[in-house]
Amino acid sequence: MRVAQTGPGSGSARGPGGAPGGHPPQSVSSQPSRFAPADRGPVYGALDLGTNNCRLLLARPSRRGFRVVDAFSRIIRLGEGVSQTGRLSDAAMRRTIDALRVCASKIQRNEVARARCVATEACRIAINGRDFLHRVEDEVGLKLEVLDRETEASLAVSGCASLIDYRTDYVLVFDIGGGSSELIWLDLTKRTSAERGPDADRRPAAKPEIRGWTSLPVGVVTLAERFGGHHVTPDSFEEMVQYVIGLVRPFETLHGFRALSSGATVHLLGTSGTVTTVAGIHLGLKRYDRARVDGCWLTFDEIQAVTYQLLARSYEERVAEPCIGQERADLVLAGCAILEAILRTWPAERLRVADRGLREGILATLMSEDGVYRTGRRRRRQRSGQN
Description:
The protein is of the alpha/beta class and 387 residues long. It has helices at 82-85, 90-109, 121-125, 129-140, 149-160, 193-196, 220-227, 234-255, 257-260, 273-282, 290-293, 300-311, 315-320, 332-345, 358-369, and strands at residues 4-6, 12-14, 44-49, 53-62, 65-75, 114-119, 145-146, 170-176, 181-187, 209-216, 266-270, 297-299, 350-353.
């Protein structure tokens, strides 16, 4: 079975007829739901090969966006050691190929009509990244495109746009990845008074303006490799935060978002394993539950409470946390340091958590190109005895 790109520059793929952040694979769609029945409409696919995770999402168009048919997520740590050696290691490539074989099998079994398979930071920067992707095509039959940073940021925004509170003036969307972190400031101030009213549709037809974006060359894997992730002290954590602030500062200096948003209504929207983990711990979940995490709101104080609670725990205690586990226990505080740097640079009262992002953006884009993606709101039915 071979899934190859089709169309010049389309980045899409055609083949024969799990949850962000390393959590167990669950239903992921434009609206939280169980896997949809596999009996109507074409199946679309989105595969995201990141520095830390390999994630696949298969879905069919629905009246409210799309419904998931199948999903897969596995931590593969493809970018392990790349920040020191500049190369993908043999062990990391073997782990990744094993995961991609599972993805290829799911694509074939579900008779995916159209898919887009992308690779991000690890393959962008590794000396042997392109050679590895040729090997994947030869051995697995999947052709992956290396996504540029701007496209990655744009797709991440598209994937979580339904969680934006459109009554605010500015929104900072961020994605803390394994090897890089994307920051996108959205400007909603040009909406009319009717669009900004309390009874207005929360998601207007016009897309919000991207006021500025950047891709920071730091993620949970690279930061943990630089400062250590197993045994993190308050001092080493602060060193991580200051290091990231140093990377963020030129972006803030260029655009002045701190001053721009002063006196305005602002909220943050985080789409990454870091924020979903923080949310799960804050909610006291005994097992990660996407339905409770995706779309929930956190305050600055709630985020910091979880961060410093984790900082006080040993590595073994972090492993025992059900929303972290052994595979991510050495990375979670690096993610918290990046989040802390963002919050210190742009203080905001509210942060919305998105367990969706790049893959959902890919699916929405593919379905929109084929004219089968709908974003209409479902009418509310007045039922007696229900709110």
